[in-house]
Please model this.
Amino acid sequence: MSATPSQRPGRITIARHGQPDANRETRLDWRGYEDWWDNIYQPASLAAGQSAPDGLKAAADDAHIVYASTLTRAIETAQAAAPGRELDIDPLFIEAELPPPAMPGRYMAKTWGVFARCSWWFGFARGRESRPEAEARAAMAAARLVEAAQDGHVLLCAHGWFNRMMRPHIRSAGWHCVRDGGDSYWSYRQYEYRAR
Model:
């Protein structure tokens, strides 16, 4: 892709959702964690009393399109950042799966999340979306954002790990991170295209 100054693509802003209303310190065995992931965390709304940071609201104001995954926490984050705006809600942007390894013991849900992500990274998927499948989806998601940015600024409200998986694809397309807000709730990164 090449762009003259007059054709320069818009900025891409990728945000992590706000804090979900799900207790990550509850203690569970691996089966309990799997149930917690499917039936508590994944459908959770945002916890009460949160608001989008001003910088994220400004990015939404500038965006010609605001994307969100189909999960409630992402949709509510986008609604908080861009109140009243029509959202483009797409399952392409949902979080990568976290199937827990079948190991003994009771641990906090957040600890199971670490175990699950590590084992998933090394190939354990137990019938759910695998790492290679998620990587292919991340490439498609990044391409969607890059294409949309040809018409102006873009905002995506999605998920910590999947956002991370999109980064190398965005960088390889010639985009550079100009604001790195980290990976906490409500954090966001912004990318701008720089012709090679």
In short: Residues 79 and 85 are 7 Å apart (CA to CA). Strands lie at 12-16, 27-28, 65-68, 88-89, 107-108, 154-158, 175-180, 188-193. The radius of gyration is 17 Å. The helical segments are 30-41, 54-62, 72-81, 109-121, 131-148, 160-172.
